[in-house]
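ok so I'm stuck.
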Amino acid sequence: MRYALGLDPATSFGWGLLAEQPDGTWLPDGWGTMDFSPKKEEPEGVRFLRIADWIPTVLDGVDVAIFEQPFSKGYRTAQILFGIAAVCLVELERREIPYMWVAPTTLKKFATGSGGSKKNPVTKEMVRAALNGWGRIDYETDMSLDASDALTAARYLVETQLVEPEPELQLDF
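replied:
not stuck anymore, here's the structure
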């Protein structure tokens, strides 16, 4: 069985794992969200150490991964997002797991038909409908929006068969 992992790297870090079934279809095998907000009086770098300790737990057995590309209009937030992504990249490279990036607008278009849609109730409903197509996910009770973004990224990966790693990280601000 092969596994594809979608990652939505942020302070509220979403992840979603798809497993290839014997008939060649892919179904969700796990998802979740981890909160990496800094704790009171905690140095900023400790957040990255917590991510470095956690990320191996979701990478075990993964064959390919996809990231939702970090985006922020704010400089400080961009530093944090790309730091989080860098921690993940180190572990992916260490394990020789192929990965790729996908722009948030590409994921939105894949999930909703519109790349310019915002995370609002309409988009939430469309993403929920897309995920409920798998039959065993109750979006309202089982999943955060960050986890649904990660599962949508994994679904994008397997349905478009974009499994070749990108040659380098592109910092588009």
